[in-house]
Amino acid sequence: MDRIRIVGGRELAGTIPISGAKNAALPLMIAALMTGDTLTLENVPHLADVEQLIRILGNHGVDYSVNGKRDHQNGNGGGYSRTINFTARDIVDTTAPYELVSKMRASFWVIGPLLARMGEARVSLPGGCAIGTRPVDLFIDGLQALGADIDVDNGYVIAKAKNRLKGNRYVFPKVSVGATHVLMMAASLARGETVLENAAREPEVVNLAECLNAMGAKIHGAGTSTITIDGVDQLSGASVRVIPDRIETGTYAMAVAMAGGDVLLKDAQPDLLQNALDVIAQTGAEITPTNEGIRVKRNGAGISPVDVTTEPFPGFPTDLQAQFMGLMTKAKGKSRITETIFENRFMHVQELARLGAHITLSGQTAIVEGVSKLKGAPVMATDLRASVSLVIAGLAAEGETTVNRIYHLDRGFERLEDKLSGCGAVIERISG
Ligand code: UD1
User: Fold this and answer.
1) What burial letters (b/e) apply to 245-260, b meaning 16+ CB within 10 Å?
2) pLDDT tens-digit series, residues 241-266
3) How many domains does the chain have?
4) What pLDDT does residue 127 have?
5) Does residue 129 have an active-site annotation?
6) 319 CB less than 6 Å from ligand 1?
7) Does 176 contact ligand 1 (Cβ within 6 A)?
């Protein structure tokens, strides 16, 4: 199993290109199921989760090509973000089996397009990161509000809508990114108008709405908590660009805030993570939006402690919580980090402690007592975002840190070790 070896203590200097957002690419790819025409997506990151979703979509009959050629003929464009064409001319199977769905939670979202286009879908209950129970009740509830008949049998959600889905008003009892994606897709092909209230406002929801509208859907209000969708009879092909990854942006900004240095995060978009950038600035880093992206700089001064609470967008993202905790382990004083989205998202605490961090847990709050020095150690990645917090901490620790089980990292961070070593970090992947 691959691992990453880091020798800490180097400042970062140079440019890090920000990739297309994993969490936007996945729902856009799933939207390809909704038309027989070709959906072209630009800036798709090269990640294990994207490859996995390509396999899942292939099982339903989606054909794809990279820059006009089949992926295996073309290589992968050097491993960086690329343009992929997806064509679901015929849906050959409306079942998403356990073997495929269990590897990635977002693949459950195919339920929306399959149901809307084919009138039926049989989708395994999902797996994914072990960060809490992550149920699917909101999806079931919402699709039922659009007139779907739903049974859960033998680990599968079986959804039917023989006479087409029907628009309705649905108020989400809790903000959910995935359920907002799915209901927006399903309602686009329903009869009549749907109004979604308490919808997720994440930039990825906006990116999906732009994609669906480019395909002929009639969606208004994405990015606010009320989304209105006028159903249409069919969607067509389109060409859409995946937005830059705000979580990758925030992660590298925190790496610089922690290790020190001066880095341009090329193609990053500040409005996608303003709250997190404000927090990082409060820790003492200088954040400057430029024509090319975001410049992050921190010189000799210490790291100031800042309290944060995770919230749905536009609040501080749960996907940056672990990385921020990494940064706070070296702050000059005490900070409190409260997780409100997922109940079991503190698995990085024990691993950060192996590097010398002082963290105590009190319910959903972690109290971090900053230390002046972290010391390198072997650590274990437990989930996608937790693992990158260990990398950040390793960059600022004295000596050598080895991060094991990095397949988690490969799910969501494109060429992490190349991007960091390009800025002077001593970091390498060790195979086997
Ligand atoms: C997405 C992101 C993930 C991010 C999360 C929150 C992708 C691929 N993943 O995940 O990186 O951490 O948003 O910003 O975009 N919930 C229910 N019932 C449901 C659905 C969700 O109770 O049917 C709960 C979840 O357990 C969680 C909360 O709602 O407590 C928010 O989850 P949700 O926004 O749905 O997360 P995902 O879409 O899975």
Assistant:
1) bbbbbbbbbbbbbbbb
2) 999 999 999 999 999 999 999 999 99
3) 2
4) 58
5) yes
6) yes
7) yes
